[in-house]
Amino acid sequence: MQDEYQQEANLKKPILALALAAGSTLALTGISAQEQPQVPGVVDPARVTAGNYTLDASHTLVSWQVGHFGFNDYFGLFGQIEGTMTLDPADIEATEFDITVPITSVSVPSDGLRDHLLRPGKDGGAPDFFGPEPTPAQFTSTSVRKTSETTAVATGQLTMNGKTGPVTMLVEFSGAGENPMNKKQTVGFHARARIDRTDWGIDYAAPLVDNIVDLEISAAFERD
């Protein structure tokens, strides 16, 4: 009989331990859920407010990708970008924006390549790429066409390297809400575009270095 009681007690111990562990886990989960801060930006078009916006230059980037000799792709970034936007969520197709990208902000892992991108031409001739004091690139929208509740196609004119031509971007709304740092209403977008660099007179080593350049834009705008 004593052996039976002992066996029953031994069975209850692991069951009790599991119950205590489960209770502790639930308690910790509840505390974690209460303490975890909420992400301020949400992909919810209802959060977007109409008005004039200014680009958040500290958190906006343009990345570029180009094929190198058919071996692999090379990547770079532009930053310190400025711009404005007029936005009304009730009339997306009336959206207008103007973006300025300083070419001298170009960032690449190779110091030698950055030097080449901004190098003056030989013997007073045209530079291979942009030259040492290039005028900032500028994109001005001409139309915005809504394609879903969170996507649109934006068309505009890109002026770069002394030439102007059309560019189309696929734009995706990525979040809206109040920036907890400065309390400004903020809206974010991701966009993709593809250009032929030779259309802007950047012909060096084409097509060995691919003439097609893929662009990705991550932009945050703050309401004025």
Rg for CA atoms: 27 Å
**Helix content range:** 10-25%
**Largest sheet report:** 8 strands, antiparallel, barrel
Class of secondary structure makeup: alpha+beta
What is the CATH homology-level superfamily of the largest domain? Answer: Lipid/polyisoprenoid-binding, YceI-like
Residue share in β-strands: 35-45%
Apparent shape? elongated
Summed up, the domain count is 2
What top-tier CATH class of the largest domain fits best? Answer: Mainly Beta
CATH topology of the largest domain: Lipocalin
Q: In the CATH classification, which architecture of the largest domain applies?
A: Beta Barrel
What is the arithmetic mean of pLDDT? Answer: 89
Number of helices: 2
Number of strands: 10
Concise structural overview:
This protein is 18% helix and 42% strand. The chain has helices at 2-35, 111-117; strands at residues 51-55, 61-68, 72-78, 82-87, 96-101, 137-146, 151-160, 163-178, 185-196, 209-223. Mean pLDDT is 89; it is low at 4-9.
